[in-house]
Amino acid sequence: MPSVTNARLIQVDALRGFALLGILSVNIWAFADPYYASISSNPAYTRSLDHGVRLLVALLFETKFYLLFSFLFGYSFTLQMAAAERAEAAFVPRMLRRQLALLALGLAHGALLYYGEILSTYALLGLVLLAARNLSPARARRWAIRLVVVACSTWMILGVLQGLAGEASSATNGDASDKLAAFSGSAWQTLQFHSLHLWETLPALWLLQGPSALAMFLFGYAAGRQHWLASPPAWKLQRLLKVTAPVGLFGALIYALAAAYAPGGGLETFAFGLGQLTAPLLTATYCLLMLALFNTPGGARLCTLLAPLGKMALSNYLLQSAVLGLLFTGYGAGWINQIEPWLLLPIAGVIFIGQMWLSARWLSRHPYGPFEWLLRAVTLLAWPSWRRSE
């Protein structure tokens, strides 16, 4: 198995590619469904199949895969540290440039393609991780656990207080109507919607996703410092899964039901806190299962197929937004609220398979994805090779 100090770990890339599938499976609903995250509000959900598919996505995908991506961000941070050490280069200036470039890309992505983007969150939280780069792995894990517990407990207490105050649901159809009109209209209307809603959405996303993402950064950092994916410890897989899977699924089920059928009130706030508290366990379940699968003959082939997708994860994340924009907004077909809900996951699967093929083809000729190349150029203050040498 390749050394963490000598080569990129294929498992990291493959896990990141797998995370892209989960992120796409969530984001497609944000483009295709104007009533996203509230099943009870959408008049198009008339069948049990529609409700079942939407609940499945909320149960298994929402709030899980950005955590996996966050864990891998923290893990890759340690690979960047090792790369700077090998090059005898100052690490802090490198990472400052990298994070600022990521922030610029994230804001541009949000204003142009998807107002719910997460790159700017990663860029800002990456600066926090940079400040904490000297933490020991054990201390990083303790801080991560405290962060999750405090943040999630706060949400759950707020939910109880909301319920006791008798606050009615604040969910309205106004935003859904605006989104439907913009995405069904012209490219200019779509652009206006994204650019205006970006600044309304970002503070909420930083508040909702920031604490959990930072905690997973710290977990990933601790794992990277101990080279878990380079030389995995002797995990007792079955024992771990007996804890992570049922507890994670329980919290996810409560969250999915509340978000779908009781949006905007104290119950949803409480369920969000509970879901965020248990989501890292379900994310860990996915990670453990995929690592175990990668160590089987068939799984090794899957690992090889997923790795190119994950190696150029930034480019693929941006490409997903572009493709979804062409399908569901005024940038292209404007199919928002026109596709049967049960078809959205198969469509996401087709897009993902296309990205797997395209990533492998691109990396056969280029050492980096296009946006990875750009980020690397800013990080190193040098022009990396664009094409692979013969």
UniProtKB/TrEMBL annotation:
InterPro entries (alphabetical): Bact_Transport_Assoc, DUF418
Residues annotated as transmembrane: 12-32, 52-75, 119-136, 143-165, 204-223, 243-262, 274-296, 317-336, 342-360
Keyword Membrane belongs to the record: yes
Keywords tagged on the record: Membrane, Transmembrane, Transmembrane helix
One Pfam family this sequence matches: DUF418
UniProt key word Transmembrane helix: yes
Coiled coil regions, renumbered to chain: none
Domain DUF418: 223-380
Family annotation (PANTHER family): INNER MEMBRANE PROTEIN
Protein name: DUF418 domain-containing protein
Organism annotation: Pseudomonas brenneri
Species classification: Bacteria, Pseudomonadati, Pseudomonadota, Gammaproteobacteria, Pseudomonadales
